[in-house]
Amino acid sequence: MVLITYDVEVTSECGAKRLRQVSKACRDYGQRVQNSVFECVVDQSTFIRLKMKISSIIDHEKDSIRFYFLGRNWQNHIEYMGRVTSFDVTSELII
User: What pairing do the DSSP bridges indicate for beta strands 37-40 and 64-69?
Assistant: First the structure.
């Protein structure tokens, strides 16, 4: 489990575009749990691809991305308060 947080400077048209692109890249690999926070369950090679994709999008002088690795027992490291808008990405999915 990797928690991805980002702060993209959006005072320009280019910044707003970068924000949308970073959001889409994260959405492709995980689920949004807050406006600029995503939970992603990825293996090492997938994480490297995601990181390279985000790196190619952002302005390294203006934007900030953080990756938090929650480890093997990540379920025990997450506490909720208030409305929970996410779902367990590791549970069975019935369609």
Answer: unpaired
Topology of the domain covering 2-72:
Alpha-Beta Plaits (3.30.70)
- The pLDDT tens digits for 20-56 are 999 999 999 999 999 999 999 999 999 999 999 999 9
pLDDT band, very low/low/confident/very high, at 1 (cuts 50, 70, 90): confident
Parse the chain into domains and list their residue ranges. Answer: 2-72
Longest Cα–Cα distance of the chain, Å, equals: 44
Report the alpha-carbon distance of residue 74 to residue 71 in Å, rounded: 5
Look-up of token digits 């390294």 = 60
pLDDT at position 48:
94
CA distance linking residue 21 with residue 7, whole number of Å = 13
Measuring CA to CA, which residue among 90, 2, 85 is closest to residue 48? 2
